[in-house]
Design brief:
Blueprint (H helix, E strand, L loop, with lengths): L11 E20 L3 E21 L17 E23 L3 E21 L3 H15 L13 E4 L6 E3 L2 E21 L2 E12 L20 E14 L4 E23 L3 E23 L5 E16 L2 E3 L6 E3 L21 E12 L4 E12 L2 E2 L9 E2 L2 E12 L4 E8 L7 E7 L2 E6 L4 E8 L3
Antiparallel strand pairs: 1-2, 2-3, 3-4, 4-7, 5-6, 7-8, 8-9, 9-10, 10-11, 11-12, 12-15, 13-14, 15-16, 16-19, 17-18, 19-20, 20-23, 21-22
Length: about 450
């Protein structure tokens, strides 16, 4: 992967790995006149092996000592033995004709036995880490000699070269749950409210760490979610309106951040944001005013905020410091939006179909999408802002009325809107991923069933 987008070897990554997975789930379910229930157990294992080589020869931090030597590459080799087991239950119970209670819970245990080794046959990397080990331990330069492909990360406490893989284990457990209430006002209107708690398992980083402390994992994140909404069919069944408001409170949300490093200066890695929130509303309307014509529109408003910013321990001073955002700015970014969260998102679609004869039908359609501006990091710096964009897709075609085949002529982004879908800072450059320009094509689908 050429992550820098230039002809220089500023940041390239060569990844080789494998994952062996096994999963098994057993369920027992049933129902009565008033209820539906389900219980079960889930078991999963994942054995992971990975070698990720970072190529940085032309980067400005390739020579960490005056005059060199230059670092050409560093390989991080990891293994992970991950086991997860979960026990879950769910029930829906009717309280009369209008109310239904929904309740569910899941207990999960996870473990991850982890090893990591940063190594290389590059003389520049080995000489650099030998130099820093000697300097931090007060030894004469050249005392520490690192052989090719020995682990170079320095012990966080002694500054001695590790030489052997770092090992650690992450043990976590949690109870996720949900509780809801549905109210059927009449045959056409459903009102509902739902509260739930969920978790995302912690994980270890894959990075060329200069000290073994940087291999420490991010811990599991949790989210407390509250939602209320309605589903309403009206206009004699020709229209359907779905709407909801929601509030999510995250603890220890896992996001991409940066930490200071005594050798590489700064390193990107996952970090835990102690507290953040997402709140908003969404609405979806479907309307068919005449036979064959279907109109759809949906919109989402989202407001996000970092309530408490993360800190890290500076390995040089041993002191807690404010974290860094994606452009290497350090500070307290409490109050910032979460990355990649546009405030407004809107989609509209028009589809018209009518028979041509007793066997064939024709159709035309259009799709409009709008995203408001967002940012790929915290603090809303100008150079990582993702501008708002609007795209228009068109389609037309013929189809068999029995559903066996469809032929479509289509155009995507027909206004040739230029926009990018992702961006980040890596080493010395700002990288943006441009979305596809105007694209035309023909598709044919056949259903063999």
């Amino acid at each position: 992967m050429d992550r820098d987008g230039t002809t220089l070897t500023n940041m390239g990554i060569d990844s080789v790995g494998s994952v062996d997975s096994f999963t098994q789930e057993l369920r027992l379910s049933g129902n009565t006149d008033l209820s539906q229930w389900l219980v079960g157990v889930n078991y999963a294992t994942n054995d992971v092996k990975s070698d990720e080589t970072v190529l940085i020869f032309d980067s400005t931090n390739a020579a960490l000592m005056p005059g060199g030597p230059f670092i050409d590459n560093s390989t991080t080799s990891i293994t992970q033995d991950i086991k997860d087991i979960g026990i879950f239950a769910n029930m829906e119970y009717d309280l009369g004709e209008k109310f239904t209670v929904l309740a569910g819970a899941r207990y999960t245990e996870s473990s991850n036995d982890f090893t990591s080794c940063s190594h290389s046959d590059d003389p520049g990397l080995n000489a650099t880490f030998g130099f820093f080990s000697d300097a931090l331990r007060g030894q004469a330069p050249g005392t520490t000699v690192i052989l090719p492909n020995q682990c170079v990360s320095l012990d966080a406490a002694t500054a001695e070269v590790s030489r052997t893989p770092y090992t650690d284990s992450l043990e976590e457990d949690n109870v996720s749950w949900r509780l809801g209430l549905n109210y059927r006002a009449n045959e056409d209107l459903l009102l509902y409210t739902l509260a739930s708690k969920g978790y995302k398992t912690g994980s270890y980083p894959i990075l060329p760490a200069s000290t073994t402390s940087q291999f420490e994992p991010v811990t599991q994140e949790s989210v407390q979610a509250l939602e209320g909404g309605l589903k309403w069919s009206f206009a004699e069944g020709k229209a359907q309106l779905n709407s909801a408001i929601f509030y999510y409170q995250y603890d220890d949300k896992q996001v991409r951040g940066s930490v200071k490093d005594p050798v590489y200066n700064q390193l990107d890695r996952l970090v835990n944001i102690p507290e953040s929130t997402i709140q908003g509303a969404e609405i979806e309307l479907t309307y068919s005013p005449i036979d064959g014509l279907l109109l759809r529109g949906s919109g989402t408003y989202v407001n996000t905020e970092v309530k408490e910013w993360y800190t890290f321990v500076n390995p040089t001073t041993g002191q807690d410091e404010d974290g860094l955002n994606g452009v290497r700015e350090q500070g307290d970014f409490s109050g910032s939006d979460l990355p990649f969260t546009p405030e407004m998102h809107f989609v509209a679609d028009v589809d018209y179909r009518r028979p041509i004869n007793e066997n064939l039908g024709g159709f035309v359609g259009a799709n409009l999408l709008y995203n408001s501006e967002a940012n790929s990091t915290f603090g809303d710096p100008d150079k990582t802002r993702i501008d708002s964009f609007t795209t228009l897709d068109l389609r037309a075609g013929v189809e068999a009325l029995d559903g066996t085949w469809t032929a479509t002529v289509w155009g995507r982004n027909v206004t040739d809107e230029y926009y990018w879908s992702n961006q980040f800072v890596t080493q010395d450059v700002l990288v943006r991923y441009a979305a596809k320009p105007v694209t035309y094509g023909i598709s044919f689908a056949y259903n063999f069933m």
